[in-house]
Amino acid sequence: LFQVNGHNPGSDGQAREYLREDLQEFPGGEVLLYKLDDLTRVNPVTLETVLRCLQARYMADTFYTNAGCTLVALNPFKPVPQLYSPELMREYHAAPQPQKLKPHVFTVGEQTYRNVKSLIEPVNQSIVVSGESGAGKSWTSCCLMKFYAVVATSPASWESHKIAERIEQRILNSNPVMEAFGECDFLSKVSSDS
Ligand SMILES: Nc1ncnc2c1ncn2[C@@H]1O[C@H](COP(=O)(O)OP(=O)(O)OP(=O)(O)O)[C@@H](O)[C@H]1O
Questions:
Q1: Is the dihedral of CA 186, 190, 193, 194 positive or negative?
Q2: Residues whose beta carbon lies within 6 Å of some atom of ligand 1
Q3: Atom 27 (ligand 1) nearest CA
Q4: Is there a contact between 109 and 95 (Cβ–Cβ < 8 Å)?
Q5: Which atom of ligand 1 is nearest the CA belonging to 143?
Q6: What mean pLDDT comes out for the span 54-71?
Q7: At which positions is ATP bound (predicted)?
Q8: pLDDT over 50 (residue 19)
Q9: 73-111 as b/e, with b when 16 or more CB fall inside 10 Å?
Q10: Alpha helices for the chain (secondary structure H)
Q11: Which of 81, 190, 69 is nearest to 133 (CA)?
Q12: Model pLDDT, residue 28
């Protein structure tokens, strides 16, 4: 918090004072906070203001927020089917500039997919999904696999539709294997998933 602000308070009292100053400078009330879809635009950037922004977005049922080129995903702790529909996947897939749409895990999926398809080095792509236990890492990985399964084929004909279904099933079937790797114990440490 204080490194970000450049403050180096000597005591808790001073720390609280700096925080109060930061919050007084913070523009817009809670009402507009949920509209900030990139945390780098929160000004000033403090732990408090970033959390308040994420909280406001959460209250507005907005669960994805950019932080520069990183995507912050909040666990909604409730089903949000409209956020993961095949129609929405296709919208992100078809968008000329998916990064201009609302922040979403599909943007990340689509960008990596385009990078692979362009065959420009580096062709292989990695997506780092991190967070504490229960944050939604498995959910996010599964979403990405579903996304690739849906967009990787264009079911124009009956035959290609069948191929698409087969690929989708294979990708989804690989999930238990991926999960099993997540459950493993390492020589140096026990996985947090165990
Ligand atoms: N975007 C989401 N929409 C709906 N439910 C979600 C979402 N993200 C996570 N959840 C729910 O939250 C719970 C925890 O998510 P998940 O298992 O993906 O966490 P995790 O980060 O993989 O945890 P761990 O590290 O302990 O394995 C799951 O029951 C999942 O259904």
A1: positive
A2: 75-76, 79-80, 131, 133-139, 192-193
A3: 193
A4: no
A5: 1
A6: 94
A7: 131-138
A8: yes
A9: bbeeeeeeeebbeeebbeebbeeeebeeeebbbbbbbbb
A10: 2-5, 12-25, 30-33, 47-59, 86-94, 105-118, 137-151, 158-173, 175-182
A11: 190
A12: 52
